[in-house]
Amino acid sequence: MNCETCQLKELELDPAEIRDVLRCVLHTIFFHRALGLVRPKDVDCELFEITYVQCGDAELEKKIDEKIEQFVAWSEKHPNRKSQVCLSFYEVKSKQSSWFGIKVERQHWEHWIVNVNVHPIHPPKSSFLNTREKVLEETSTRRSALETSVREVLFQIIKFANEKQEHIPPITNSEVVSFPYEITTPSSSESQFGWNKDVIKRILHSGHPYSLS
Amino acid sequence: MASTQNSETPATEQVITEIFAKSLHIILESRSPYVSSRNYSLDQIPPSPSSSGGSPSTQPGGSRDKWFNLALRECPAALQNSDFWRQSNLEPLVIEILLVDRVSGTEKLLERWVVQYETRKHPGTGRKSKRTYRGATLLFRSLYLLVRLLPAYTLFREMNSSGRIRSLGLSHRIQSFVNPLTRSEEAEMAHLCLTPIDTPFGRLKHSVSYLSVVDDISIGSELSTPMSTELIPDYVGSPTTDPLKRFQTLPLGGSAPICVQPGRRHSWSTDRLGSLNLSPCSLPTHSDPQRPSIPLPLSEVQKGKRPVGCYPSSLSSPQKANLFRCESAPVSRDSERNQLVRFGELPSGVSLPKEISIGGDAIRYLDVAKLPLASGSCVGGSNVQLLDLHDSDANYPFASDDNRTKNYEGERSLAAIVGELLRMLETAPKLQIGFEKSDGPDQNPNPAHSGSRTAANALEELRSYMHMRDSILSQSGSHSLEPKPEKESNSKGSNSEKEMKERNRP
């Protein structure tokens, strides 16, 4: 089984925009991959004129919010850095019991990488050259550009989710979120390279022929 | 059950039929106003009366609502048309979303959705029905999202949320054939195709052609629709509003009239009209050079959204007269809104400076014509004249008589104008709508005889104006502004107060 990876377009965010944008993107991905019986829940973005869809699963919503808060905390400590939030779907291949415990082997079949560049946007200070209206106009322009980028990312998700279907494993349960998943943020693997090292290690150990080439 | 020409299995046929039905449901649910299944509870969904047997899914009951693991509430618009295309699955399902002008009857194509089954050239190489069902499940996730990302969804939300009857509306048309698009439609529409759903003997394709920019259509059409107008000769602001705030909020340079004031809220205010403003579709984005620019920073207009022009364009003389008068009589806000909505009948491409100049022309017209305004808004023998708004001091809508305000070496002072206003209030006859001519300027109607309620209101206003005058004077620090008219107004005001007290004594 192939493992497909979707690199989403980078989004430049102000710290105040992280939660709204990540919720929108992550829930959109989950809505495509939660193939159980879903009661769609339309949600309006707080900062943008975008309506996205949630699966209506409270537990999923809670987990997503937790991961977003982890990322927000990390980004506050590491400002002005490019980073990624990775949503991975996997299958549990085997469970091997050892004297350490039960070792669970996960075989990832899809990675969604949300690229963000968080840097505080400092509006120019008001002066006789920069009127309040001009500052507001610049903020509005930047926000509109970000909204456009978020829309592009959502279309990107739709396109990828539609085109790549062969690698999706069969559904084995009746839960809303059909497949086990994990959300990786930079805070979960504090290293010089961020989370990339863990993800690469995981891909290498997944045992796929193509990944070893 | 509709059947395909090929020998699809009955199970696959059923899946194909339900794919058509679900597509229709998802599209119309978010395009047919007043019908929405947003944030509902599955328990509230009544069982579908037209549910057709069990689905290959594991859900009990096999209700159509849960087909493809996407539970939706019933959509009456979809149910009404669900059997339209069932004659044959070979016929395409074409759903056209139209923006309809209820007044003129014109239609504008916003979207065209096409769901079409195609037979496979080499039968037997397709998927099993189970895989077809799963492919449809994945597709409908994308379709459900896609209908909410397209620009027409914003229109749908706007029309669904306000609940008021609009001149524009969303409509749909379902056909079993595809009309070719005109050249202009082809040019302005974008196209999207979802990955086809494979069946054992064919495949189902979903595609959409959509108008990527709907801003100008909705806003321009909405404003071009004339609403019933009612000319009310007495146009003043509410007595409870701060009249001096009106002086302060009018921008310099002869800009548009009272409707520009940011602090003034009307039924036509931009917080309602602002919701009509649509963010442009991003895929692809089209620049619109014909968008009128509105440079004035209205506080009620959200940045980044196109505000709706509410400035007067071409005004007839009675309408011009109605805009300017003293605050002696309230005006119906509906009529005010009607007039201002009519003013929004702007030809495309009209920019604000033209409108400002038109407003200035209107002012100059009044100045020359010396139009008498109803309900005794004449002052001291002369009709109300507007100040020249190009004058830096002239931020006030109330005209001032040259003889009274041009005092103290010809300077027009704020206090002088306020005093003039007070004098006007004192000499104003009782408030009656429908007066064609005002009383003679030399008359001094006694407010006491016009009814205790009217006089009390006038006195209350007078007191408030006096208080405001005092506060302005104290702020400006101009101590030399104790004009004679103010003394007259004070004496007259005190006289009227004395009379009222005498009348009210038990």
From TrEMBL, chain A:
GO-annotated cellular components: Atg1/ULK1 kinase complex; phagophore assembly site
GO molecular function: protein kinase binding
GO-annotated biological processes: autophagosome assembly
InterPro entries xrefs: ATG101
Keyword tags: Autophagy
Domain of life: Eukaryota
Family as reported in the entry's similarity comment: Belongs to the ATG101 family.
Protein name, entry field: Autophagy-related protein 101
UniProt organism field: Rhynchospora breviuscula
TrEMBL record, chain B:
Record keywords, A-Z: Autophagy
Transmembrane segments: none
Comp. bias (Basic and acidic residues): 460-470, 481-506
Chain segments carrying region Disordered: 38-62, 460-506
GO terms classed as biological process: mitophagy; piecemeal microautophagy of the nucleus; protein localization to phagophore assembly site
Compositionally biased residues, Low complexity: 50-62
One cellular component (GO) term of this entry: Atg1/ULK1 kinase complex
Residue ranges that the Swiss-Prot or TrEMBL entry lists as coiled coil: none
Gene3D superfamilies: HORMA domain (3.30.900.10)
Domain Autophagy-related protein 13 N-terminal: start-end pairs: 16-100, 106-212
Pfam families in the cross-refs: ATG13
PANTHER family, per the entry: AUTOPHAGY-RELATED PROTEIN 13B (PTHR13430:SF15), PTHR13430
Name this protein carries in UniProt: Autophagy-related protein 13
Native organism: Rhynchospora pubera
